[in-house]
Amino acid sequence: MSLFKNPEIVRNARIQLRPKKLLIAAGICAAISVALGYTFFHKNTHAIYMDGTYFVAGEALLHVILWIQALVLVIGGGIACLHAIQREKDQNTFDFQRITRLSPYELTLGKLLGAPLMVFFVFLCFIPAAIVGAVAGHASWTIILAAYVLMILGSLAYLAFALVISLFLRRGTVTWAILFFLAFVGYTSSATPLSQYASLSSISPFDAISLAQQSSWSLAPSFIQVGRSVIPGNEFRDLFFGAPVHHALVLFILYLTILAWFIPAVARNIKRDPANYELYTPAQALGFLCYLNFILFAFFSWSEPPPSLPRAGGIFSARPIAPLDAQSILFGVNVLLFFIFGFILLRNRNQVRRALHGGSAASLGRLEMWPAPYLFLGALIVGAAMVLVIQWKRDPSLEWSLTVAIFRVFFFAFWLICDFLFLQWMKIQRNTHPLAMGVLYLGVYYVCAIIVVSSLSLWQDPFTAFFLPTPLFALDTASWVAHEAVWIGALVAQIAAGVVFVSLQRRSLAALRPQASRISMNAPAANASA
């Protein structure tokens, strides 16, 4: 079906794009553009200083217009997409859309492109002012065109993420979702705590504004003298496994792949009953985890900058990161990634009942271990890739132990398995908010353990690994040799705790199993005893 004939887009166009509303929006945009143009051009002979860069009038106008367009697309479009599905649920009209003849992808694209139609119109209204600024500033048209392509693609990626959030929102939670989305946009648009360890710049659509300020497509490293310090000046040069690549190409590929992950996630669930939502299949979730780790490994910086950059000209030096420290950093990021992966895999009470209906003893055995097999497989794949990349990129002169690295992978895997077996057991309990209660109990345990460990200053003590995984991130060859038995005992304790939660989950699954199935399974045992 053509996008212009998509009923969802047509419906939103009739609601949002009424002539009176379009005239008002166009008039406001024109007034803002004229006011900005007059402000920047009435003293055309003077340079204008903005964000640490000198601009002539045309460049300044283009810079401000691009900022306005990016804010309109990302913030305005994101809020519109957050309401796209949630508002239909509140108005009890979403069920009518689910039973239409539209395919899941047609309905998803209708929501993604139809909900922010007015936002797209406002974006277009500022194009004439941007053209004036580009002409007056003698900007490169190829760079400006690339900047707009990145801005639109990046905004669509953020809108698709907002649509995923909207799919899972409940009544009265949209305000918190908007605050979370704004915080996410702000976080990804600024330097992150990992920025000193990653050779990848910001990935937000606002990077298109920086691209528009570039004068060429050169990848040569440049340096700027700021006072007595020398800082890198080429912000659009990333390192892909050590090879220089243009940041615009990286963003283009990232945005397309992110859309390829988010749009199918929405389409997979948009025509389902909300009680049966499942963001990805287990195989897809594992693929998404590997995709995120590939980005992490590819752009990881295997050297850290010195505490202070040199005060004179020249190339600043960087110190290599110790291989075990690099593994600790990668594990720290993967804590978040694996928790996302684990929450995708968790099944609610209805999904477990459906899986148990008509199932065999083998299916019951698989559910007892859920989601441990996929978590263990993911940890092995990511851990093996992590060890291989570190083995490839490490400095041979620095400390490295393959035994310690492999032990870390297995300890990390069993620690995650233990936590998520507990959360899965909690999620199938008969409570109002079972998963929230499970997260609360787990959080209380970790907070209490952290308070005790911090008060006794036992962060790196191997015995702490029985209760917290924090000593794992400081484990080195000396600690392994000195306390090998303690570390193995901590790993055995994690496995034992996992076995306990498997047994608890087995009892809960037995209670959820249909009565007829339980009778049929117990009948052979009764006949044998007779």
Structure explained in plain terms:
The chain is mainly alpha-helical and 530 residues long. The chain has 21 helices and eight strands. Helix content is 66%, strand content 5%. The strands form four sheets. A two-stranded antiparallel ribbon has the order 1-2. A hairpin with a 2-residue loop joins strand 5 and strand 6. Helix 12 (282-298) runs antiparallel to helix 13 (323-345). It is globular, with a radius of gyration of 27 Å.
Describe the structure using short key phrases:
about 525 residues; mainly alpha; two-stranded antiparallel sheet; two-stranded antiparallel ribbon; 21 helices; 8 strands; about 65% helix; globular; disordered C terminus
Structure annotation, total helices: 21
Give the mean pLDDT: 83
How many strands?
8
Structural class: mainly alpha
Q: Helices and strands, in N-to-C order?
A: HHEEHHHHHHHHEEEEHHEEHHHHHHHHH
In terms of DSSP E residues, the strand content is under 5%
- The count of domains is 2
Numbering strands along the chain, what is their spatial order in the largest sheet?
1-2
Largest sheet: 2 strands, antiparallel
**Gyration radius over CA:** 27 Å
| Low-confidence parts | 223-234, 308-317, 516-530
- Give the termini distance in whole angstroms: 65 Å
Helix content: 55-70%
Q: Indicate the overall shape.
A: globular
Oligomeric category: single chain
